[in-house]
Amino acid sequence: MRRGRRLEYATLIWNVVGVFVLAGAALAARSVALVGFAVDSVIEIGASTVVLWELAAVDERRQRRALRWIGSAFVALALYLAAQSTVVLFVGFRSHHSPLGIAWTAMTALAMYALAVAKATTGRALDNAVLLAEGRVTMIDGVLATVVLTGLILNARLGWWWADPLAGYVILYYAVREAREIFAH
After folding, report:
1. pLDDT by residue for the chain (185 residues), tens digit each?
2. Chain Cα centroid distance, residue 105
3. Dist CA 61 CA 84 (whole Å)
4. Where are the domains of the chain?
């Protein structure tokens, strides 16, 4: 169980640092995808906190309340990305290049894939459904980082300005899916 908590703390710390790095990169580049990924990192901080509560066997009512807050945050993120990505595409706004955003999302993708595998392995060894589920969420974070990275690189290298808001739509899809899953329970 201790290893599970250490893995979750590692995810939590990475996301806390990531929020600041991504916020700076998003402001400098004026990138919808980076803003969306930064907000997703804030939400994942909340999700990691819920998992840590679960591993500590905290009151179920508090967990449900926390999950509702996380679900609401995903709804807000989805609304923001739907509006902002659509406006950006409609007016043809071109975000700036973001070497910092590219570097951080590349490192994030690698870190999330490694943490996902470690959580899945530990979850199976401990027969812990929470860690197994969190491992899947962490894998999705790696996929989202890869999508944002792809959008940033396509914009920087090929001038495909529309790849940034399209990456925002991918995060939008994920946010809607997560909110639906949370509120379905």
Report:
1. 688 788 888 988 999 999 999 999 999 999 999 999 999 898 888 878 877 877 776 677 777 777 788 788 888 888 999 999 999 999 988 889 999 999 999 999 999 999 999 999 998 998 877 778 788 888 988 999 999 999 999 999 999 999 999 999 999 998 899 889 888 87
2. 11
3. 35
4. 2-184
